[in-house]
Design goal:
heterodimer, A: alpha/beta, Glutathione S-transferase Yfyf (Class Pi), Chain A, domain 2, Rossmann fold, four-stranded parallel sheet, 14 helices, globular, B: Fumarate Reductase Iron-sulfur Protein, Chain B, domain 2, 2 domains
Chain lengths: 303, 135
């Protein structure tokens, strides 16, 4: 299988470990991700005012580009890009006036008619590849690591537009890890916001909410946190230095992308995963679990 | 808090603008407080999310615009997900930010961000942050 893929600007640069692991894992699962020829930044946040059509042009242009390339589906790994593109698509599908104005403004050869479907990579793994296939290709147990899947808000809300998972009790990432034989932990706050862009202006506010999330995961026995968004990953990771100073006894915990963990479980070469760029180094925990290795020394999958 | 309610303030242009920009009818809110209960940042806010709506319902839009609350909203949609009346409070917050910035200018300047942070943060933080905090 192949899917048109929208990486987003952060996955091309700061979060390239996420992009590389996503492509590698998807390729291994026969779900090749092929980047759109023409794409631009999605805008990182869905514009919420009724009179702000110009901020929708940016994300809309990506949908148009996919449509022009003859793609019916656009797959996204970054939860924020997924949210913005999906909400943009929904807004254009629901509002004929906005759609007409955007089409007139963009002056492309053909009008966009809302025909592209935006899907998240987790959805592709769950419904197109299937968890059984993924289980077959994974060395079960993830080295005994207990994973706290962190969903954040962009993967879940608003539920009627995003429709990926239950907004209050999500489990798509948990089911994925369990299918790979890993132990997942249940903990509160896993669908709660990490603060997102608040860190730029009010890092202490972000720190409070991310600390709440991490403390709950750690209390539940997590060894690692799994995320699907570069900003969630950054907030949960970078803010831990601040947390260590603000909260006595705070124990740091590595924050990884779900595709990095999948790649490790599948015994793939993790050289490009950029673990050294994480603020809380995940390598000690991964090494201890026997997950950091060269591909030639691992028997992958089941006979 | 002592307030003066008048027909002018209850039916002011500002109230109309908030409703127009957000697309939300604020009379729908019956102040159940679920938005405030679910908001992850409520603990840092000076005015609770449900109180923001109450202020607008009472025609006191400028008080809402002057709050720190509107800049602490992360648009996480938890309020909207929990509201029994389907009021999208994130849209109201966006409208208030836009009105506040029209009057007072940008809420964030590049110069305020430490150079090391500028280098470290993923660009989506800045793209989103500048979209929310500047005109």
């Amino acid at each position: 299988m192949r899917f048109a893929y929208f990486p987003g600007c952060t996955l091309e640069t700061k979060a390239i470990g996420f992009d590389r692991s996503a492509r590698q894992v998807a390729g291994e699962l026969d779900a090749d991700l092929v980047t759109l020829q023409e794409w631009n930044c999605c805008g990182a946040t869905f514009p919420l005012s009724t009179d702000n059509l110009l901020d929708i042009v940016g994300p809309a242009r990506n949908l148009v580009s996919a449509a022009e390339a003859g793609e019916s589906t656009l797959v996204v790994a970054c939860a924020t890009c997924f949210n913005v593109l999906r909400r943009t698509n929904h807004a254009l599908q629901q509002n004929a006036d906005a759609l007409e104005k955007i089409n007139l403004f963009m002056e492309r050869p053909a009008d966009y008619a809302g025909q592209v479907q935006v899907r998240h990579l987790l959805d592709i793994f769950d419904h197109e590849v299937g968890l059984e296939e993924i289980a077959k290709k994974s060395r079960p147990g993830l080295g005994g690591l207990r994973v706290a899947a962190y969903y954040g808000c962009m993967l879940l809300r608003p539920a009627n537009e995003i429709a990926l998972d239950d907004p209050e009790r999500p489990d798509i990432m948990d089911r994925l890890f369990r299918a790979m034989g890993a132990e997942t932990v249940e903990y509160p706050h896993r669908g709660e916001c990490c603060g997102a862009y608040l860190t730029v202006r009010s890092p202490d506010a972000s720190m409070e909410i991310t600390h709440r999330i991490l403390a709950a995961a750690i209390r539940a026995g997590a060894d690692v946190i799994a995320t699907a968004c570069p900003l969630c990953q950054f907030n949960l990771d970078w803010l831990q230095n601040r947390m260590a100073q603000a909260y006595a006894g705070f124990q740091k915990i590595p924050v990884l992308y779900f595709t990095q963990l999948m790649g490790l479980a599948m015994g793939l070469d993790a050289t490009g995963y950029d673990f050294e760029k994480h603020y809380v180094d995940p390598r000690p925990v991964l090494r201890e679990a026997g997950l950091l290795h060269t591909p030639s020394t691992v028997a992958v999958g089941r006979p | 808090m002592r307030v003066k309610l008048s027909r002018e303030s209850l039916e002011s242009d500002l109230v109309r603008l908030v409703e127009e920009i957000s697309g939300e009818d604020l009379s729908t809110c019956y102040q159940c407080g679920k938005c405030s209960a679910g908001c992850p940042v409520a603990g840092s806010m000076d005015i609770l999310p449900s109180q923001i709506i109450r202020l607008i319902q009472l025609g006191l839009v400028e008080d809402a615009m002057a709050s720190e609350t509107i800049w602490l909203c992360a648009a996480c949609q938890t309020c909207y997900a929990r509201c029994p009346k389907g009021v999208d409070l994130t849209r109201v917050m966006e409208a208030l930010r836009e009105l506040a910035m029209q009057e007072l200018g940008d809420s964030l300047q590049v110069a305020q961000i430490a150079p090391c942070d500028l280098a470290e943060f993923p660009q989506q933080a800045f793209v989103a942050g500048f979209r929310k905090y500047t005109q």
